Structure formats: structure tokens, C-alpha cells
Amino acid sequence: MSDAVASGIPDFSDDDRFFMTLALDEARAALASGDIPVGAVVIHEGEVIGRGHNAREALGDPTAHAEMMALTRAAETLGRWRLSGCTLYVTLEPCPMCAGAVLQCRLSRLVFGAFDPRAGCCGSLYDLLSDRRFPVRVAGCGGLLAEEASRLLSDFFLSRRGRPGS
Amino acid sequence: MSDAVASGIPDFSDDDRFFMTLALDEARAALASGDIPVGAVVIHEGEVIGRGHNAREALGDPTAHAEMMALTRAAETLGRWRLSGCTLYVTLEPCPMCAGAVLQCRLSRLVFGAFDPRAGCCGSLYDLLSDRRFPVRVAGCGGLLAEEASRLLSDFFLSRRGRPGS
């Protein structure tokens, strides 16, 4: 049974799975700086136009989440802040900041991996992307390759256990 | 009657008013690039440690809101992403992205000017800062020098009326 069917949502395409594996590669890249492993890619017409991983510790920047990095780089690539026609793949359900950024950039579609019951704002705590009071809405769905995304996160938090400040 | 009393919230200090005038100065700086006039400053121990204005058009970056710029610069100044002990002054109630950023950086206090009934997430559409399901909460209040902040915005939108693409 696919991840999508298991979570009661429509099935994902082979392209979706491929692009999520790229986001998972980005998530692993966050580990080198001790950052929480979350990764993201932005796709436009079948091409990767932005990549990013969580770099809060690496950059000392509270806004340096994977989605923010990937969306900013995608805007640089296209030379415009409107990312209509683009899809963001991210390994973890976006927090309020990143869900808000998805709305700001007029993204066409969001696909995420693991749900985040503690801070997720695309279905878990809130569903900001479908709130009709905002001027735009974004199609979003989660659960794709969620087990792999969750495993990366749980391994990371287990490895930090007992360290000073953790 | 003060702005604060008029909107049914606790009164603001003279320092609060002074720092909001700095944020209003930042808002005016956004006009040069045709950006929506919103400005912000971050204060730590009585000093400005970060400034920013909306620069979405200037930078072609959908995440370049006043708050994001000011918070990122404040983190650079302090050399850490945790902005505990800091206050953010911003001329307009934060959107979901910026309210989320305020939570991410563990800010101590938020003061905003005009309420935003279309996208505000600090009391208008949502009150993200006081949601006890998130790991942190931030004290926030709005209405300070709101008339001046609103006038800047309404003058800007009136001046754009009838222009192509507006």
C-alpha cells in the first residue's frame, strides 16, 4: 500500500516520488551543521529551480528553514517573486512561517513528507493553505515518503539525546 | 485618547512610541522601490539591532517582508538565532509567514501598528502568538500609531490605482 493510500489521500506520481527523493537528499545535507534534517526543492516545468535545507544553526538565522531557502532561490532563478506554476516538495509539513511563505509566493502546489503534529500548518494544527479568507489558496498534500523523512528526524533527535543543551 | 486606549488594549510607553516612529521611517523607505510601505525594527536593551522594510519588488524575493529582514539582521547582530530579550516593532500586523518567524526566533515581545483584517495573524484572522500548542508564545499587542501606518498604506494603494497590473 502506498504512502498516499495509507494516509487516506490521493496517490502520488512517479515524478512526485523522484522529486521527494531530491528533497530527502537535501534533508541529509542539513546534518553536517547539526541542523534538524529537513530538505526542500522547487520544481518548474520539470526542472529543479531551487533547493534548500534547514540551516538555522549553520547560518544563525531563525528564518533559514528548508522551504524559505528553496523558495528564495527559486525566485532568484525565475527572476520574479511570483512562483505560480511551481511545486514545492518538502520532507516535513510546513510550520506557520513556511506555510505563510508558500501563500506569499503564489505557489501552485505543495507536496510534503511527514506530518508534523506539533507545528504543522498544512493540515495538522491549521490548514492555512485552504483558508478562503486569504487572497490565494494553494493545493497541498502530505504523506509522500513520510517514513523516510520521519526516520531521518527521529535518528537525529535520538543522536542528540543527552548532549548539553539538548 | 491614545491609540492604545482607543483600541481597547493596554497603553504603550514613550519608548514604544519612539521605536514605532523608527519603524514608520523604514516603511517610507519601501516606497522608493514601489514596495508596499511596511517597516520594522528590532530592539535589544534599548538599542536598534535590526531594521527592515518590505523589499519584495526591490529584491524579487517573496519572503522579503519588513519583519523577516529586521529579524534576520537582528540575529546577525547578536550572532545567534534566538532573539529572546528582543522586541519587534512593525507598522502592520504580521501575516502568517511573519507571525511564524516571530515564533521561530523566540522573540520576547511584538508591537504592531495597524491591524490587518485581510491577512493578520496576531489577532485578526488568527492569533498564532498565543496558541498554546506551539512550543513558544510571544506577547503581542497592536494599535500603536496605527493611523499613521494605515495612512501610508492607503496613500500607496491610491497612488497605484489605474496603473497597469494594479
Summed up:
Helix content of chain A is 37%, strand content 18%. Chain A has helices at 3-6, 14-29, 56-59, 66-78, 96-104, 146-160; strands at 39-44, 47-53, 86-92, 109-114, 139-142. Chain A starts with a helix and ends in a 6-residue tail after the last helix.
Q: What this model shows, in words?
A:
The structure is a homodimer of 166-residue chains. Chain A is of the alpha/beta class and 166 residues long. Helices cover 37% and strands 18% of the residues of chain A. Chain A is built from six helices and five strands. At the A-B interface, α4 and α5 of A face α4 and α5 of B.
State the helical fraction of chain A. Answer: 25-40%
Distance separating the two termini of chain A: 37 Å
Strand content of chain A: 15-25%
Biggest interface reads: A-B, 39 and 39 residues
List the helices and strands and how they pair.
The structure is a homodimer of 166-residue chains.
Chain A: H1 3-6, H2 14-29, E1 39-44, E2 47-53, H3 56-59, H4 66-78, E3 86-92, H5 96-104, E4 109-114, E5 139-142, H6 146-160
Keywords:
homodimer, 166 residues, alpha/beta, five-stranded mixed sheet, 6 helices, globular
